[in-house]
Amino acid sequence: MKKMIVTGGAGFIGSAFVRYQLESYPEVHIVNFDKLTYAGNLENIKDCDPERHTFIQGDIADRKAIQAAMEGCDAIVNFAADTHVDRSIMGATDFIETNCTGVYNICEAARELGTSHVLLVSTDEVYGSIREGSFTEKDAPGPRNPYSASKAGGELIALAHFETFGTPIIITRGSNTYGPYQYPEKVMPLFITNLLDGEQVPLYQGGEHNVRDWLWVYDHASGIDTALRQGEPGQIYNVAGGHERENIVLTRKLLELCGKDESSIRLVKDRPGHDFRYSIDASKLKALGWMPTMDWETGVAKTATWYRENEAWWRPIKSGEFKEYYRKQYENR
Ligand code: NAD
Ligand code: TYD
Q: What's the mean pLDDT in 63-85?
């Protein structure tokens, strides 16, 4: 793979994947195609060598634009998505446009151009919630919120494309990802930056014992890379962190790391349809040679330290568009 287009490469995981490719494969040139929504940020990719990294602002829901950008690339890895569950509950039009129509456009363009590798980054949330045990790739999707339903919709469109036209689609389903450069609407950076500002953290009441499986962002990047290079078209690969924690356990860990006590917790009304537990089995990807490297305590501490040391990155975000979102989301709850 010499020329790879990464869509959504100015976001949290996409930018980590771009850095990972540039560091791991000296022959690779990256075309980074991103709409720069509220979640896209050129600061995330400012250190990428311009000789090996070309940025294009564009929308995957714009068929002509994405096809033109894909021309001459032998691989596409799609991260572009609307990604936040709480925003999808406020309104899911953009989610359906990007996560379904955008994915369809990528499949169609790949078919027309004969792109040899097409990897679509998806999420463990498409399986829905599981009380005990872990989902494998053989389990049927059962999404329970507008975000995960739109991701499952995109996946089904793409898998049908593989069956019908032979488009070489590979799908990865990652678990909750954490680390540097994550937009502070997600629980970990939201809680850390609130605590650094001496504010309370809005923990969903009734969801304190809900469980998420935490995956270090560079382990997620290497998992996607393994599926891309070693995986088989038409296949799905789970990428699990292997570190399941209750939300209250995560919250207490963040309080400790930021030198705060439980008076910094504000219990707020629960998320409607809040999924209780996500858990996936990553044996299939591990059989291709992938292993996560980060232990949870170290990863969470590194993340807290990164936000402490990079206020210049998150301060403009929190005092910009995010402020109005935060007010709408948490006021009177
Ligand atoms: P993010 O919200 O940080 O970034 C999304 C990026 O996509 C942004 O740069 C945004 O500008 C871009 N984008 C949005 N709509 C676009 C469009 N129509 N055209 C082009 N670019 C567009 O997201 P993230 O957390 O980095 O997630 C990346 C991918 O990984 C998503 O597909 C998500 O579903 C999946 N995923 C995320 C997690 C997680 O915990 N964050 C876990 C598993 C899977
Ligand atoms: P989030 O980071 O939004 O990821 P997802 O919903 O995609 O798993 O949330 C992770 C967990 O944290 C989830 O169980 C909801 C909970 N949470 C809160 O308690 N308060 C918050 O303000 C947020 C954003 C999440």
A: 98
